[in-house]
């Protein structure tokens, strides 16, 4: 356990050093957040149908996506792990006296946390100061905020567990491009990052409910806005934890299968 905590600390502190990249990402996320909200404001002003989300809830949903983008994006990747697999240097990882799945999981978790910490506070402050309807609203009550924090953290752990399959697939494909595109694009759409799930058609909403992706982003964000009440949030947390356990168990099984077939050439 000490090895995993140590690598988590090292990666977390290392990630905090990339301030220039964080500033560039900050500007990009503010820009896209405003553009997305402007598009939805235009749709809401000219729509005759009654939407399932208010404009205020939608603006909050989008700002939470941008604030916690490092938590929820599946295309966030560690090129060092890809290089270890494709170059054959995975042999050095196998020499460590710890499980490779848990070791990589701790690294990826720390990277996402450090990236989010550098960006979230500035975006949070700016989003709160924007005029209505472009601003980030406060949660309706403390009873909504506490479940939001818990569901967001479980969603982060769930997202890392999903992203681990991208790295595991490279043992067979030897290229991260295909698996990153397929999993990232599919996961981003089904988690509500492109279109919020309440604005999707009914059949597509039911489809997203049976997959793990919506539990990483859509679920905690709607808990924050109060669209999902605290009692329902507690039930959702149980489902999140079940998905997390399933994905970790399957991920560990897959990486064991992959390591049995690893061939490291050279002397």
UniProtKB/TrEMBL annotation:
Transmembrane segments: 21-43, 55-76, 116-134, 146-168, 180-204, 233-255
Top-level taxon in the UniProt lineage: Bacteria
UniProt keyword list: Membrane, Transmembrane, Transmembrane helix
Keyword Ribonucleoprotein: no
Keyword field contains Membrane: yes
Protein name, as recorded: ABC transporter permease
Phylogenetic placement of the source organism: Bacteria, Bacillati, Bacillota, Bacilli, Bacillales
